[in-house]
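Task card 7
Instruction: Convert sequence to structure tokens.
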Amino acid sequence: MNLFDQVSADIKAAMLAKDKIRLQALRGVKKEFLEAKTAKGSDGELSDEAAVKILQKMIKQRKESAEIYVTQGRPELAQDELSEAACIEVYLPKQMGAEELEQALKAIIEQTGAVGAKDMGKVMGMATKTLAGKAEGRMISETVKRLLS
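Output:
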């Protein structure tokens, strides 16, 4: 079962359970998936890789919104955003830990022959393709900078 079908089935389960936050989050996910499927130039299908990118973007948006709400003194709205992000994270592949990520990046640095900060672009290009969906881009970038300096 692909991610689109899984989300559709989970929307029904959330409706039956009367779980409002989960239902709202999953409806947002399904909306984004449908927009991607029907976008100009799309073939009407949504691969799991494309779906994971959409999910990551949605989680990032929710976390950024939560930060803004906290700075504006609206913790109840921040909590809603973080709850939605948690509901969406369930559909992502297991994220790599810091040590696991560092090991993977050391291997990529060795493969590319990078020796310093000037080679960061080479490493990042390969790392983002290899680790897509397994680690957050910001975390990859910070770790690469640390390893190359």
